[in-house]
Structures are given as C-alpha cells and as structure tokens.
Design brief:
This protein is an alpha+beta fold and about 80 residues long. About 20% of the residues lie in helices and about 30% in strands. It has 1 helix and 5 strands. The chain has a 5-stranded antiparallel sheet, with helices on one face. It is globular and about 30 Å long.
C-alpha cells in the first residue's frame, strides 16, 4: 500500500490502489486498512486502535464484499 500517502488522508477519507486494496482515516482519526491476505486466501481489515470484545480492530474474511462492509464499519466506528 506504499502508493497511498496516508499523511494526507483526512478523517472520513479513504483511497484505494490499483489492486482494490483500501486505506483510510476513520471518523475518529485512526488508520483503517483493507488488504489481501498473503499466507492464506481472503482479506484482512485492520484499524490502529486497541481491540475490544465489542469492537474488534481486525476482521478476517474470505469474501470481498464482507471485507468492504467491515472496512466501512471501522471507518465509522473507530
């Protein structure tokens, strides 16, 4: 995701690269990332916040649509 300059992202803004991976800054100012998994098939969505049982900071899924839903949720809630 080196082609996305995260320093210029404003809260609520996200960018994607040519492979569809996404990087954004949540409404609360935290970085949120959606990327393809390397070791296994699927996608991972992460946020740079402390994980809590009611609000995990990482979501692993095999479906692109589910990954995008998780990305949008973390963008709103983190």
């Amino acid at each position: 995701m080196a082609d996305i300059d995260v320093s210029s992202l404003q809260p609520g803004q996200s960018e994607s690269n040519e492979s569809g991976e996404r990087m954004g800054r949540s409404a609360g100012g935290h970085l949120v990332q959606l990327r393809k998994r390397v070791s296994e098939p699927g996608f991972v969505v992460t946020a740079d916040v402390e994980s809590r049982p009611e609000a995990p900071s990482e979501v692993i899924t095999h479906e692109w649509a589910s990954a995008n839903v998780a990305f949008e949720r973390l963008m709103r809630e983190c």
